[in-house]
Write a structure and sequence with these properties.
By secondary structure, the chain is of the alpha/beta class. Helices cover 33% and strands 16% of the residues. The termini are far apart.
């Protein structure tokens, strides 16, 4: 099962992913690595900086226990739930070829 962290304010995406069988939580509640992080960045250029600060403080203590997992960051701006699912599953924003 894929675990997805979601920015507060995107509850509609969280609810849809839950209905489709994904485990979801808000990224300010994260205490363990997740498969994907969904955020919305419109005109606010500080969104990724804030995500980085949150993740840095969350994982600073856990760094020595890391098993080299990674999370894909997905900007929900102009994406349907189907676009988001495709990105989560393929771990790519678009095909390479």
């Amino acid at each position: 099962m894929k675990v997805v962290a979601i920015q507060r304010g995107l509850e509609h995406i969280k609810n849809q992913l839950n209905l489709l069988g994904y485990e979801t939580l808000f990224f300010d509640e994260m205490t363990f690595p997740v498969d994907a992080i969904i955020y919305f960045q419109g005109h606010d250029n500080n969104t990724l900086i804030n995500i980085n600060r949150q993740l840095s403080s969350t994982y600073m203590i856990q760094r020595e226990f890391s098993n080299n997992t990674s999370s894909i960051l997905i900007n929900a701006n102009d994406k349907s739930i189907y676009d988001i699912i495709q990105i989560i599953e393929s771990r790519l924003y678009s095909p390479l070829l």
